[in-house]
Amino acid sequence: MMRNTLSILQKTYDECYMRCSTAVYYESQGNEPEAMRCWKAALEQIYDHNANKIPRDHVARTQTERALVESLRQLELQCKERIDLLEALRISRQEDVVQRGSSLSGGNPTISADSSDQDRGKGYIGGAPIAEATAATFDGTATRATSQAVPVSQSRAPGASHHEDNASWP
Fold it and tell me: Per the record, where are the segments of Basic and acidic residues compositional bias (predicted)?
């Protein structure tokens, strides 16, 4: 049974990782609905795995099993986080469109199809940048924020030293 459990864990992880990679690709292409579908499919597969494929009383016996279980847990958290962020972004954009529409039409909300309005809201929730998902993000090796986040000069705490930017500093 141990070999079977290990292969089930590995297969589930591989399939979920592929779905998450696909979601990251769709996010990078600006296709948020398809990215959302991929994140949800990966999360559903993890839930199905936890509910139906591994016995509830199963304890990982090898280091490999423990690593796979932990990796699946991390993928689950990443899926939940990206789903929440994409949903919040979608809601924020809808509220922004309704708010702009009601202020322009004197109380009657209308939907603006101005492409500059859509581009301006991309990657932001209420004017604040959201983190960009990368393939490395969900495997735990690195994260990367959008390039529009905060300029370096504004990212320092008040009174912080600027010496690390000075190339001539010893």
Answer: 161-170
CB 39 within 8 A of CB 82: yes
| pTM score of the predicted model | 0.61
Question: CB-based contacts of 169: which residues, under 8 Å, 6+ apart?
Answer: 163
Q: Which residue pairs from 99-106 have beta carbons closer than 8 angstroms and sit at least 24 positions apart in sequence?
A: none
Token pair for residue 119?
């581009």
Per-residue burial over 128-142, b if 16 or more Cβ lie within 10 Å, else e, is eebebbbeebbeeee
CA distance 76 to 51: 14
What pLDDT does residue 78 have? 97
Q: Is 170 exposed, middle or buried (0-12, 13-18, 19+ CB in 10 A)?
A: exposed
Residue with the bigger pLDDT between 12 and 104: it is 12
**Rounded to a whole number, what is the largest CA-CA distance in the chain?**
68
Residue 101 CA: distances (Å) to CA of 15, 105, 110, 134: 43, 6, 5, 34
